[in-house]
Amino acid sequence: MTEQDAAQDPAQATAHAMVEARGVHKVFGHGADAVHVLRGIDLDVARGSVTVVLGPSGSGKSTLLRCVNELEQITAGSIRVDGELMGYRYDAKGVLHRLHPKRIARQRARIGMVFQRFHLFGHMTALENVMEAPVQVRGTTRARARARALELLERVGLSDRVDHYPAQLSGGQQQRVAIARALAMDPEIMLFDEPTSALDPELVGEVLAVMQDLARSGMTMIVVTHEIGFAREVADHVVFMDDGVVVEEGSPGEVLENPAEPRLRDFLAHVL
Predict the structure, then answer these.
(1) pLDDT at 171 over 80
(2) How far is 104 from 109, CA to CA, in rounded Å?
């Protein structure tokens, strides 16, 4: 990524956007083996809004999320979260530099992420899983971390499962622990990467209910999902991606009820 790839001075970032992506490209590999996954993504996510990202497998949705929180380094373009350029800084002469990994880790700590797979520590109880990051990353006292973890587990409906290990929990319960764990770091934004795709159908509703509660509380959220009902009921903004580009975006009514692009109409016909 060069200085020209990044957007202009950070002071010019969109005032009301929690996330601002400009001209984002991501290429995996080099030469003949290179795979161009993101091809110039522009995206604004308003503070306190819910943005749902739809698209077929391989369209770049998950890669976009991973670029937002620096799990993947973008090839070109810029991403800002709450006005802060992710992964880079300008020096006094306006030259762009890659941040030290510790600084990037601090940026990432502001962003909660929930994955398809739950990634819980199998040797820890639900309570211990939620406590771990605040204690280890932020140096929170165990007493404070425990109190906060109990509060969050109650919020996601698991106050009666705090001493259970992941193997003793259903998939839906494990995913709700994963959400509580992400919330324990008091993130400014939550990213969800197909959080219900690994769940049995009867367990999907309990996870979506927790996400709806988060949306009502004003949490900024970007959700990659195939749950069209969730997008229709909860999203403020819907983005449809295909082949690494944003094909169509707008309100749920515009995008889901009256799609303009043939690729989106075909996708919805298959999903619905």
Answers:
(1) yes
(2) 9
87: left (phi over 0), alpha (psi -120 to 50) or beta: left
Q: What angle do CA 118, 232, 261 make, to 5 degrees?
A: 105
- Torsion-angle region of 181 (φ positive above 0: left; ψ -120 to 50: alpha; else: beta): alpha
pLDDT at 272: 78
Angle between helices 171-183 and 142-155 (to 10 degrees): 130
Give the pLDDT confidence of 179-234 residue by residue, as tens digits: 999 999 999 999 999 999 989 988 999 999 999 999 999 999 999 999 999 999 99
Query: Angle CA(221)–CA(238)–CA(180) in degrees, nearest 5?
Result: 20
Structure tokens belonging to residue 9: 């001075």
Q: What pTM does this model have?
A: 0.91
Please give the order of strands across the beta sheet that includes 84-85: 35-46, 17-28, 76-81, 84-85
Rounded-to-integer distance, Cα 258 and Cα 261, Å? 9
The rounded distance, in Å, linking the Cα atoms of 116 and 147 is 27
As given in the structure block, the two tokens for residue 83 are: 């006005």
DSSP H or E run through 248: strand 245-250
223 forms beta bridges with: 52, 192
What confidence score (pLDDT) does residue 72 get?
96
DSSP string, 125-187: -HHHHHHHHHHHHH---HHHHHHHHHHHHHHTT-TT-TT--GGGS-HHHHHHHHHHHHHTT--
Q: Are 208 and 230 in contact, with CB atoms under 8 Å apart?
A: yes
From residue 195, give the alpha-carbon distance in Å to each of 106, 112, 144, 168, 178.
24, 13, 28, 19, 10
